[in-house]
Amino acid sequence: MFRGSIVAIVTPFRDGRVDEDAFRKLIEFHIREGTDAIVPCGTTGESATLSHEEHERVVEIAVETAAKRVPIIAGTGSNSTAEAIRLTQHAREAGADGALLITPYYNKPTQEGLFQHFKAVAAAADVPIVLYNVPSRTGVNLLPQTIARLAGVSNIVAVKEASGSLTQVSEIVALCGEKITVLSGDDPLTLPMLAVGARGVISVTANVAPGQVAALIKAFESGDLAQAREIHYRLRALNDAMFYETNPIPVKTALGLMGMIHPELRLPLCPMGEANLARLKGVLQEFGLLP
């Protein structure tokens, strides 16, 4: 259902508030550049520091602006199952095409707890659900065997896999087959993951270079592996730059330097250090992304 180049879009702020005009312009930019779907209110969208009202408004703006030209997959995860259900129900009511749910963080549920959490959300909200596994940020790893169990739930359709393990990706594909779509959650691993059965990426790098990320996916899907490899290596420095510091600090800084947003972050995220900022500017200059 969801595949291709999917952007984990930033949430622009100005003077402490969501910059709605800038957000709409970013969505239009992605549609022009060939992005296949948009994820608002994910980790890159600073969901952790959005109020519930802001979270809902950002999803509503994304749905209204996209106007069904590309799917909107709303980030609706939480470490509280009840809160995840509420956010997912709102996304459905707002007209989102799907929901991205991160594994519950901090409370470190067991694999059975993870299964019951996602099953409960899926039962409470009739919307296609993408699981999101990023153990480096959550402290818990959604194992392939648990994903295979969840693949039997009718509206759980995909997993954003960001464990960093190609072995784990391969095991998910082997266990689930066509029952669930695997999406890369690590930009540097997109091409290797496509090679073992993933169908796309939910990308940070696509915020600044959507056309190139989309071109990589399209080249692979068309069988042009040489072109896909060329783009993979071309994007290597940019992928690395997006993680010089904690995401989304570098990507929002980059978009600010590109003149696309005001690069405002919410505490506890803070502006980039000078040394990393200089490195980031150099990479953006090399890619021709600075005005």
From TrEMBL:
**Main role?**
Catalyzes the condensation of (S)-aspartate-beta-semialdehyde [(S)-ASA] and pyruvate to 4-hydroxy-tetrahydrodipicolinate (HTPA).
User: Where, in this chain's numbering, is pyruvate bound?
Assistant: T44, I202
Which biological pathway?
Amino-acid biosynthesis; L-lysine biosynthesis via DAP pathway; (S)-tetrahydrodipicolinate from L-aspartate: step 3/4
Q: Which GO terms describe its cellular component?
A: cytosol
Entry-linked NCBIfam families: dapA (TIGR00674)
Q: Which Pfam families match?
A: DHDPS
Q: Which UniProt keywords apply?
A: Amino-acid biosynthesis, Cytoplasm, Diaminopimelate biosynthesis, Lyase, Lysine biosynthesis, Schiff base
UniProt record, GO biological process: diaminopimelate biosynthetic process; lysine biosynthetic process via diaminopimelate
Q: What is its EC number?
A: 4.3.3.7
Catalytic residues, chain numbering:
Y132 (proton donor/acceptor), K160 (schiff-base intermediate with substrate)
Q: What is this protein called?
A: 4-hydroxy-tetrahydrodipicolinate synthase
Q: Where in the cell is it found?
A: Cytoplasm
- The superkingdom of the source organism is Bacteria
Which family does the record claim for this protein? Belongs to the DapA family.
| Site keyed Part of a proton relay during catalysis: positions | T43, Y106
Annotated site location: L-lysine inhibitor binding: A48, N79, E83, Y105, Y106
Q: Which HAMAP family did the record assign? A: DapA (MF_00418)
By its UniProt entry, which Gene3D superfamilies does this protein fall under?
Answer: Aldolase class I (3.20.20.70)
Q: What is the protein's major site of localization?
A: cytoplasm
Quote the subunit structure annotation.
Homotetramer; dimer of dimers.
Q: What is this enzyme's catalytic activity, as reactions? A: L-aspartate 4-semialdehyde + pyruvate = (2S,4S)-4-hydroxy-2,3,4,5-tetrahydrodipicolinate + H2O + H(+)
Q: A GO molecular function for this record? A: 4-hydroxy-tetrahydrodipicolinate synthase activity
